[in-house]
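Lab notebook, page 48
Experiment: co-folding of the full assembly
Goal: obtain a model of how the components sit together before planning crosslinking
Operator: M.T.
Materials (sequences as entered):
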Amino acid sequence: MKKDDRKFDILYSIIRDYIKTAEPVGSRTIEKKYNIGISSATIRNEMADLEEMGYLLQPHTSSGRIPSDKAYRLYVDRFMKRVDVDNYIRDDVRSLYNRYFGELEEIMNKTAQILTKLTNLTSLVSTPNITGLNIRDLRLIHIEDERVLLVVITKQGIVKNGEMRLNGIPTEQMLEHVANFLNLCLTDMQTEFSAATFAASIDALSPWEQKILAQVVEAIKTLFNQEEDIRFISNGVTEIFRYPEFRNDMDKTKRFLEAIHRNDLLSYLFTAMDDEPVRVRIGEENEVEQFSDCSVISATYKLNGRPVGTIGVVGPTRMDYDYCVSVIETLTDELTEHLTESIGGKED
Amino acid sequence: MKKDDRKFDILYSIIRDYIKTAEPVGSRTIEKKYNIGISSATIRNEMADLEEMGYLLQPHTSSGRIPSDKAYRLYVDRFMKRVDVDNYIRDDVRSLYNRYFGELEEIMNKTAQILTKLTNLTSLVSTPNITGLNIRDLRLIHIEDERVLLVVITKQGIVKNGEMRLNGIPTEQMLEHVANFLNLCLTDMQTEFSAATFAASIDALSPWEQKILAQVVEAIKTLFNQEEDIRFISNGVTEIFRYPEFRNDMDKTKRFLEAIHRNDLLSYLFTAMDDEPVRVRIGEENEVEQFSDCSVISATYKLNGRPVGTIGVVGPTRMDYDYCVSVIETLTDELTEHLTESIGGKED
DNA sequence: GTTAGCACTCTCTTTCGGTGAGTGCTAATC
DNA sequence: GATTAGCACTCACCGAAAGAGAGTGCTAAC
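Observation: model returned without errors.
Model output:
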């Protein structure tokens, strides 16, 4: 085990060095920059072993080594240390969040911006996908002619609205009737309801109102189902040009940029909303082939203890995992806290 | 003039050829591919003249010529022909617009998508920036605790809403009072109003309600002023990789991609909302330095005859101006028509 | 087990003709 | 006088060859 310790000391040094320089690391570099106290020849032997074990790769026979995905995995699982994110950053984030109270879109935007600014990586934020909501209040506001604004307030304190267009021009009264009817029926009801639910008392409404009802029900469904395709807010997609392994490889850059603009791939990348606090996917571990030379760090933020969305960064596999994981953790915490404070808290 | 005709025939051929191939055009190419009926030697002489006149550039002494910005400008001003956009495309666009009736965001998104699909260029759409609105109806909906949803419907049929947070918890009645008060005062009033306007009848409200009023007024202001920074929806930013002059030049690509993600530069690019139906900016003509090796075609779409936003494409200067201008024209028409039909028409 | 030494490997850079597309100029032709 | 054929010249592009440099693996000595 003593011997293995040395091996992994060397591996650790190689990883740190490669993360910093993006250049294959040779045995002499290790000998000189990190004083492990053994000669380059010995280090060479160890490196050969590490290569055999699958932790190192050699771009060509006479070059230094670079860490493999497996090495990064080991690094993340075994060697990674949390880094303290400066307190003033936390404060900045909080005051920013407070400035945009209630403006969900803006909050997500700013989160992505901060994430990129701190990590120098492309950041992604999925807009909250909140399912299983219970409607508390529903309003129908007449705009003009056939146009009606549907406003839904959920028990969880989420407000959604959308414009709908009826087949005819309603009176204020009709809309009020329908809204009242629905408010009575829907209390405590999930947003996914069946038409059958209304059968009982539907006769209270006039035929015209019943028609409106049907359309409103349809509108509610689309309002709450549009989340099926999650939207992503991205920031700093051109940060990728910072990294020589991309800057010197047009194909790689092209592949990255094309993928990062594809919503379908991003959803795939962020699918699993599991309970791991922070998830790290390294290179080939990514389900999405296009990101197989990237690493993705992501975490789910929550509302009332329930995961509703994901934030993360994407970048070269040789990213600074210690720091990035810490940043993501911090921001996820802050975001969760802010959301719960600003729109949560009323759940039954 | 006869002689000049021939010169410009040659110039025209060179431009067409270069647009298609992205390769410098030589005199023999012109002689063979475009039968002007004169020998390459004569063409060479004419080309030398055209270069002297500033219409052609020579990447190096012994290469063919490429058109200068000035040549494209001449082309656009003098030679460009409108191309008929297929009818089925018009139909597609219309049916698409009808499917997303009222969903402004989605409409803009789809417009950008179509634009890219048709032109193979990066497309940009600015969200409508509608000023000088008159409020017709205003609602205050209690969400929970201090949270209130403000819904404003304008005479022009535009609906805007935003969440606000009061300093205390209001009753339904208070909100109704304030809303009614504002509705009375605001009818026929611009969204930019002064606090003084209310002085007259404000005593009808309780002190608490007056406080709420002040906050609502503030909220209305931000709701209608947030347009100051116009948002852009872009699509197909990676189309740039199609074009060898970018694909083979990482710096150029980097500059382009960095610029296309910067909102401030895009606003600059799209500032002038003049009455030209379609605007073409070629290379150095662009006020934005970062786009000096690109051309921008843009047009303003309107609501009730008033320009409210811009759509456009950005790409290499050797783009197919005839086709792209026609496409932009068509889409602008359709968008204007759709908007006016769906939310306009009620203006006094 | 460790290390010094050395031959070897392989990339990267530079150099150097060769090729080919295209030009400008001159002299002949219409 | 305009047009064209002919020709020398230019310059990017390509591939081969040579040299440098970083790093390795192996062997033999410590």
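Interpretation: Residues 103 and 122 of chain B are 23 Å apart (CA to CA).
Next step: discuss with group before ordering constructs.
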